[in-house]
């Protein structure tokens, strides 16, 4: 059975924990409580299997605290990660600048492919959720960007997240198949 490790990272108060709970169907959190270090959620998704073999997949979602005071822990969090989801609040201008640092640390320095990264512009309830074109500077503008609004359209982000999980599992399966072939040949 494949087990994928996905990191949820991004600035403080961007909605990482709320989204993590929603996407893993864990408990609802009503009040803001900053994540200290990391919170690990294990889940399976019946819609995601590896390579048409129907083999189930397990996921570990690492909900990482957004405070840079935890920076010394980041190398441990990043170890063996298969994917990184960068979550930010598009209504806070500083977040757009901050996500460049998150991308640099968690994607580029870890030599992950851009396909292993997903950007989520998370709109807080009552923010209006303006899904207008977000202008992000390179290299962020090459990443897949999805908007999340749990109030107006919760299923859209769930579907996008499932697509993302499928792509992570497919790349893991392909690399495992390549490894197996190299052993055989």
From TrEMBL:
GO molecular function: GTP binding
Gene3D superfamilies hit by this protein: P-loop containing nucleotide triphosphate hydrolases (3.40.50.300)
Coiled coil: none
Pfam families to which the protein is assigned, alphabetical: Roc
Annotated InterPro entries: P-loop_NTPase (IPR027417)
GO cellular component terms attached to this protein's record: centrosome; cilium; intraciliary transport particle B
Source taxon at top rank: Eukaryota
Keywords assigned: GTP-binding, Nucleotide-binding
Subunit structure, as described in the record: Component of the IFT complex B, at least composed of IFT20, IFT22, IFT25, IFT27, IFT46, IFT52, TRAF3IP1/IFT54, IFT57, IFT74, IFT80, IFT81, and IFT88. Interacts with IFT88. Interacts with CFAP61.
UniProt record similarity statement: Belongs to the small GTPase superfamily. Rab family.
Summary of the function given for this chain in its UniProt record: Small GTPase-like component of the intraflagellar transport (IFT) complex B.
UniProt protein name: Intraflagellar transport protein 22 homolog
Organism this protein belongs to: Microcebus murinus (Gray mouse lemur)
Species classification: Eukaryota, Metazoa, Chordata, Craniata, Vertebrata
